[in-house]
Structure formats: structure tokens, C-alpha cells
Design brief:
Radius of gyration of chain B: 24 Å
Helix content of chain B: over 70%
Number of domains of chain B: 1
Strand content of chain A: 15-25%
Mean pLDDT of chain A: 88
CATH topology of chain B: MetI-like fold
Largest interface: A-B, 34 and 25 residues
Largest sheet of chain B: none
Number of helices of chain B: 12
Oligomer: heterodimer
Helix content of chain A: 25-40%
Low-confidence stretches of chain A: 1-48
Largest sheet of chain A: 9 strands, mixed
Number of domains of chain A: 2
CATH architecture of the largest domain in chain A: 3-Layer(aba) Sandwich
Order of helices and strands of chain B: HHHHHHHHHHHH
Structural class of chain B: mainly alpha
Number of strands of chain B: 0
Order of helices and strands of chain A: HEEEHEHEHHEEEHHEHHHEEEHHHHEHH
CATH class of the largest domain in chain A: Alpha Beta
Structural class of chain A: alpha/beta
Number of strands of chain A: 13
CATH superfamily of the largest domain in chain A: Periplasmic binding protein-like II
CATH architecture of chain B: Orthogonal Bundle
């Protein structure tokens, strides 16, 4: 019995040895002096084991879109994974998919990071969260850590900066503009509208002959995109977010006129009454199917509006600045995402390496090809491959100069929520416009 | 040889209780304790209450002073009263129907009744969102095709319809649970009593009020207790359907607690909201329990 056990031991040792990570054998030649009767110099081959580099996992938190490509290149996640594997074979990039809804995405990150949870090493940050995350210390300052920043336009980096700290590597940007049906405007002899009055005139004339078509469509459901639509109108009617002393100015005369325009558009039939339930997708679907004259939307759809498989209006659309009244300012609200590092990560070194890969020209180009404009890496839009994937990029240029941000606040989540609630109350007729805006301002001013 | 542990009855009882107690402590008492502590601190974007300013009952005062709180309390109460009323009567009708059909169909009918209960609330919210959709929703389309309306109603964005739409979707699910509760009570009603009443010439309506209802009263009260408690805490289906809109018309207490906790990352205020909801539910439950006690005649 004892013999049997003894026989089994080496087998067991072999099995156990096979279970661990196999050390990489390295054959080296060593000269060893062996004392014998005669000193003889012999060469002995010994095996030395070199410690393999420790495998590290870096987890990215981003929406499922990162697994999708809307252009002729691979999806950004695939591009990042491959580039990291090529440059740092010991680092594996994993994906933690965040909810589609941007609010729920924010909430997931807020819970993780406020609980100092290291599950996620790098996460996608939206532009309006920068102040909130920056003041809470929820993103690692990257200023000196990413040398590639010197190849970026400052404007792109500034959007993701808080008190001088660069908090994110921007990967994609967007801005709102006004899409129009160029064929219909040409047919009826209208130019792209400069003012909201022009827009109403053109829409009403065209709708008179085409009763089934919607005039002006926009996402008016109680969500973040409605805030972006409102922000452009507020500036377009000559308003601003805050007074010089920092108090809320949503309820100024111009502010009331802007929201009254939104409500009147619905009441008069210029905008379909369904807009109060719409998100961005519902609004753009109506336009892309050829059932609307004007659409206020993020410019990213320029990449597929000419694609006959996805669009009913290829070649029959145009993009211009969001209109402004004579006393107002053309305003396109910006959006966009950057990657930031969770300060509670357990893999700071590896995360920084991955961030440098993301900041490289190679990955920025991959984003430009897969997702379209806008990226901030200098010279990217001179690259023939990028230009081929973004044939309509020149249409965006006039809109870019109208860029404005959403209300800058460390309590942006609360400000946005208040605007959504009160604005939606106004456009659905629950409250008179002026009362809703007064309520919004008193609630915003009451925030710490 | 049999092992005979030398334990007396109280010790054995304690052994059986310990696992359940650990479960309750970890998943129930600890979170409640933490919520109480959080509610006393100004926790803005942090859970580190040891280093946060102590604000005493200020968070509760902020909640009570907030107009949004009273609006959400109003909707929560309307939602609870209307939905519990509807789900009780629909549930009772469904439960009675299972006893009225031939025994062969009884199982099939009960299986059909149980289906809505088996679907998770958030999935139901997505399902109803499609049904209510103005562009492609089935309900609006049916209403237009039958000529009842000219264009599909804005079920979730029209202030006059949103509250009803949310309650309808909630009742669709919860009537089945109510029905399951009440089936248990109805099964206890002895046939000979109703048969005797029939012989005496009592009509169906009379038999229902004079025999069935008194006999199932303990079940009815327990059912109402559970259903009211759940309605007061309803969140998933409302949040999934309207997100609290239009405006703030369908904001419930739970959605406010969620928003302060997860969206605004104000753990102190969020905890105060959650605890006030908890206290309200507890108070109503105790009220019910007090009301139920005299009716529990079948206790051993």
C-alpha cells in the first residue's frame, strides 16, 4: 500500500506542476568548475526560468456602441483591444457595457466611483459631467501623463478639463445643427433658415401643400436631449443660462420667448404633438424617412443620411446652423465623450498605458472612421481614409463655430433634471411657460 | 450508531433561527441601519460618512419642505388607492372565475392568470411603452382603426392620460397576484354553506355578500395589506414607462429617493427620502394589521 502511495507521488507532483502557469524555459550556457582529481573545464547546460510578465486586465466602461462601427473600419473596441495587445501583450482590455440611457450610464458610474469601487478602470465620460466629476475628484488628472495631448486641439481637451486638469482623452464629439430637406426648400424657393421666423414661414408654406409632412421635429420627451434643444433655442432668442452674479436667467424675457416658441410649435401643428414623447431616435427617424422638413439634431447622422439602405432622403438634405432671431445667437449645443481613469483603479499603470494607446493617432483615426466626426487629433481630417469615410465632413464646419456648452454647473445632474421637469411641464401644458421657468429658476438658485 | 446532540429545545430553535437571522441582518437590517446613518450626514458625492458634516435632521427637513416631495406623495397615494382598488376587484373576479369553470379548465385558467405576474416589472414597462407608443403602438392603432379617436392618444406624454396609463399597466400585472392570494381564500369556503343558502333561495349576489365575503375577509385584508405595501413602493414600472413625466405628474416617492441617491449622488437626502417612504409604508401596514386582528378567527 505504502509503495503504491510512493509511486503515485511523482504523478501527483507532475499533475500539480502542470496546473500552474508554465514558466518560460530559457536555455543559457554557464561555465562551471567541477572539482575532480584533475581540474577539467566542462560546459554544462542548465535551465533557468524567467518570470513571465504578469497578465493585467484593464476594464473599460462604455455603452454598447463601442462594439459597433458605422463606417468602413472596425468597431472602436476591437481597434483598442488589438492596438493594446500589439503594444502591451500582457494587458488585456475588457469591456463593461453601460446602459444605453445616458442618465442610467451616469448613475452606474456615480455609484461605482462614489463607493470607491475599482471594478472599472477606465470609463466613458460625457461632456456635461465634467464639472461634477472634476469637483468630486472622480477622474485622474492626465496633464503630464499623456504626452500625446500635444497633438490635440486645445478646444477638444478644454471640454474635458476642470480647473486646469485634463480629465479625459476625447474620442468623439458632436454638435447640434438644423437639418433641412434641400429638395423641398429648392422647390418652394426658400434658403436654409437664418431665423426661427424664416423656419416657420418655410415650413408653413411647404406644409400647406403637403399636409402629411411634419414641419419642425425635435426630441421633446423628458430627457437630456430636450435640454440640448432648449439650450440652443434659449441662445437663439437672445437668452443666457446665468446672470453675471451666477443667478439663474432661464426665466428672462428671451428665455420665456424661447420656450413659448417650443410650445406654440406644438400647439400650431408646426411640430407634431408626439414630440413631447420623443427621444432623439424618434425625431431623426421621422426626418430620415422623408416625413419632416426640419430636424434639430446632433450632426453625427451626416454619416448615413446619404445611405439609401438607411435613409429615405439621400442627396435631398442639407445641414445649417440652428436659427437665431435677430437679437439672438446661433447656438449648437455640444456633446461628446472622452475616456477617463477611475481614481480608485487597482491598475493605474496599465490603465495609463491603455489611455496612451487610446490617445494615439491610430485609435483616434479608428474612431473617425467607425463613428465619424468629430475628433480633435490634429491633421486627422487630412487623412484620405478618414475623408473617404466622412465625405460630408465639410458640411459640419459652419456649424462648429456656433458651439456652446450645456449649463455649466457642479450640480449639472440636478440642473438638467430641473430643466427637464419644468420645461416638459411647460410644453405639455401642465404649467404656463412663465410659471414653469420661474419655478425652474427658483429651484436652480436653491441648489448649493 | 445514531448521533444524538445534547441540545435542549431552545438551543435547537436558536440553531434554526441563526441562518435566517444572518440573512436578515446582512440584507435587511444592515442596509436600513446604513440608510439611517447616511440620512444624518451631508453626503454629497461620497459615502464616507465618517468624514462628512453631520447635519442631524436637516435632510428630513429639506425633504418635508420640498414641493416635489408633496407632489410625489400625492401621486403615490392616488396611485396606490386606485391601483389597489382596481386590482382587488379584477383579481377577485378572476379568482372566482376559476371556481366557476369546469374543473378541467381550472388549471388552464389559473396558468393564464399567473402569466403577467411572472414577467419582471421592468420588462413589462418596456412592453407597455411599445403598446402605448404613438407612432407604432398597438393600442393607439386599434383605437384609430375602430374610429374611437382620430389620432393615437399620447398615453405617456399627455398629462390627462399618463397617470391612467401607468395605473392600467400596473394593475394588469398585479391583478394576477391579487387573484392568486384570493384563490387561496376562496378554496377555504365550504361548499355546503353555499349549497344550503341556494336551497334556502339566496341569490348569487346575496351568497357572495353574506357567505363568501365574510369567510374570506382575513384573506382579503392580508391581500390588501400586501398589495398596498407594494403599490406604495412601486417604482420599476413607473420609472420605466414615464420616468416620472410628463413634467412631474407621475413622480412617486421611490423615484425621488432613486434620483437623489443615484442621479444626484446626494446620499444623505436620498436616504432621508427612502426612510420617509419606509416610515409611511410601516405606518400604513400597522394600521392594517390592527384592523386585521379581530378578523383572524381561524387562528388555532
Amino acid at each position: 500500500m505504502f509503495k503504491r502511495v510512493l509511486l503515485c507521488l511523482p504523478v501527483l507532483a507532475l499533475i500539480l506542476a502542470g496546473c500552474g502557469p508554465a514558466p518560460t524555459p530559457e536555455v543559457v550556457e554557464q561555465t562551471v568548475e567541477v572539482p575532480v582529481e584533475q581540474t577539467v573545464e566542462v560546459t554544462k547546460i542548465v535551465e533557468q526560468t524567467a518570470e513571465p510578465e504578469e497578465k493585467q486586465e484593464v476594464t473599460l466602461a462604455y455603452g454598447r456602441f463601442i462594439n459597433l462601427s458605422f463606417g468602413p473600419g472596425p468597431a472602436p473596441y476591437e481597434a483598442i483591444r488589438n492596438a493594446v495587445a500589439e503594444e502591451y501583450p500582457n494587458i488585456e482590455v475588457q469591456l463593461n457595457i453601460t446602459p444605453d440611457d445616458i442618465g442610467a450610464w451616469h448613475d452606474s458610474l456615480a455609484v461605482w466611483i462614489s463607493a470607491e469601487d475599482p471594478t472599472v478602470d477606465i470609463y466613458g465620460m460625457d461632456t456635461p459631467w465634467v464639472k461634477e466629476f472634476g469637483s468630486a475628484g472622480w477622474a485622474v488628472p492626465l496633464n503630464e501623463k499623456i504626452p500625446e495631448f500635444e497633438n490635440y486641439d486645445d478646444s477638444g481637451l478644454d471640454v474635458f478639463s476642470y480647473e486646469g486638469d485634463r480629465l479625459g482623452v476625447p474620442v468623439w464629439g458632436s454638435i447640434h445643427g438644423l437639418f433641412y430637406r434641400s429638395d423641398l426648400l429648392d422647390e418652394y424657393g426658400f434658403e436654409p433658415p437664418e431665423t426661427f421666423d424664416d423656419l416657420v414661414e418655410a415650413a408653413e408654406t411647404i406644409m400647406a401643400d403637403n399636409p402629411d409632412i411634419s414641419g419642425y421635429v425635435w426630441p421633446g420627451g423628458r430627457n437630456e436631449t430636450m435640454v440640448m434643444i432648449w439650450a440652443a433655442l434659449l441662445h437663439g432668442f437672445g437668452g443666457q443660462y446665468f446672470e453675471d452674479d451666477g443667478s439663474c436667467a432661464f426665466n428672462s424675457e428671451a428665455g420665456i420667448a424661447a420656450v413659448q416658441f417650443m410650445k406654440d410649435a406644438i400647439d400650431s401643428g408646426l411640430s407634431p404633438r408626439e414630440v413631447t414623447a420623443w427621444d432623439q431616435e424618434a425625431a431623426r427617424t421621422r426626418f430620415a424617412e422623408g416625413d419632416a422638413i426640419f430636424l434639430q439634431h446632433n450632426v453625427s447622422i451626416v454619416t448615413w443620411l446619404d445611405d439609401e439602405e438607411r435613409s429615405g432622403i439621400p442627396g435631398n438634405w442639407g445641414l445649417t446652423k440652428v436659427p437665431a432671431q435677430p437679437n439672438g445667437q446661433h447656438a449648437g449645443v455640444t456633446g461628446g465623450f472622452a475616456f477617463s481613469i477611475n481614481p480608485y483603479t487597482d491598475n493605474m499603470d496599465a490603465s495609463l498605458k491603455v489611455m496612451r494607446v487610446i490617445a494615439s493617432e491610430k485609435i483616434q483615426k479608428a474612431f473617425a472612421i467607425a463613428w465619424g466626426p468629430v475628433q480633435h487629433y490634429q491633421g486627422l481630417y487630412e487623412d484620405p481614409e478618414v475623408l473617404e469615410a466622412n465625405p460630408d465632413v465639410d458640411k459640419i464646419e459652419p456649424v462648429l463655430e456656433t458651439a456652446i456648452s450645456r449649463p455649466p454647473s457642479e450640480d449639472y445632474a440636478q440642473v438638467s433634471s430641473i430643466v427637464q421637469e419644468e420645461l416638459h411641464s411647460a410644453i405639455t401644458g401642465i404649467k404656463p411657460v412663465e410659471q414653469a421657468l420661474n419655478d425652474a429658476c427658483s429651484r436652480v438658485d436653491a441648489l448649493d | 450508531m445514531r448521533l444524538r446532540p445534547n441540545l435542549r429545545e431552545p438551543a435547537v430553535a436558536l440553531l434554526f433561527i441563526i441562518p435566517a437571522f444572518i440573512g436578515l441582518a446582512v440584507f435587511f437590517y444592515y442596509p436600513i441601519g446604513q440608510t439611517v446613518i447616511f440620512s444624518l450626514f451631508d453626503l454629497d458625492h461620497t459615502t464616507d460618512w465618517m468624514n462628512a458634516p453631520f447635519v442631524g435632521l436637516n435632510n428630513y427637513a429639506d425633504v418635508i419642505r420640498s414641493r416635489q416631495f408633496w407632489l410625489s406623495l400625492r401621486f403615490t397615494l392616488i396611485f396606490s388607492i386606485v391601483s389597489v382598488f382596481l386590482q382587488f376587484w379584477i383579481g377577485l373576479a378572476m379568482a372566482m372565475a376559476t371556481f366557476a369553470v369546469v374543473p378541467r379548465l381550472r388549471g388552464v385558467l389559473r396558468a393564464i392568470i399567473i402569466i403577467p405576474w411572472a414577467i419582471p416589472q421592468i420588462i413589462q414597462a418596456a412592453m407597455w411603452k411599445w403598446l402605448y407608443n404613438t407612432d407604432v403602438g398597438l393600442i393607439g392603432d386599434v383605437l384609430v382603426r375602430t374610429g374611437l379617436v382620430d389620432s393615437p392618444p399620447l398615453f405617456l406624454a399627455d398629462p390627462r392620460l399618463a397617470m391612467g396609463a401607468v395605473i392600467f399597466a400596473y394593475v394588469w400585472k398585479t391583478a394576477s397576484v391579487t387573484s392568486i392570494f384570493l384563490m387561496g381564500g376562496l378554496a377555504m369556503v365550504p361548499d355546503h354553506l353555499t349549497d344550503a343558502a341556494k336551497v334556502d333561495g339566496a341569490r348569487a349576489w346575496m351568497r357572495f355578500w353574506r357567505i363568501t365575503v365574510p369567510l374570506i375577509m382575513p384573506t382579503i385584508l392580508v391581500t390588501l395589506l400586501f398589495r398596498t405595501r407594494d403599490a406604495l413602493r412601486a417604482f420599476d414600472i413607473i420609472y420605466g414607462l414615464t420616468g416620472g413625466g410628463p413634467g412631474t405628474q407621475t413622480e412617486v416617492l421611490s423615484s425621488f429617493a432613486y434620483k437623489f441617491y443615484f442621479t444626484f449622488v446626494e446620499y444623505g437626502l436620498g436616504s432621508a427620502y427612502a426612510l420617509i417612504t419606509f416610515v409611511l409604508v410601516m405606518a400604513l401596514s400597522l394600521l392594517y394589521l390592527k384592523r386585521i386582528q379581530p378578523h383572524l378567527r381561524f387562528r388555532s
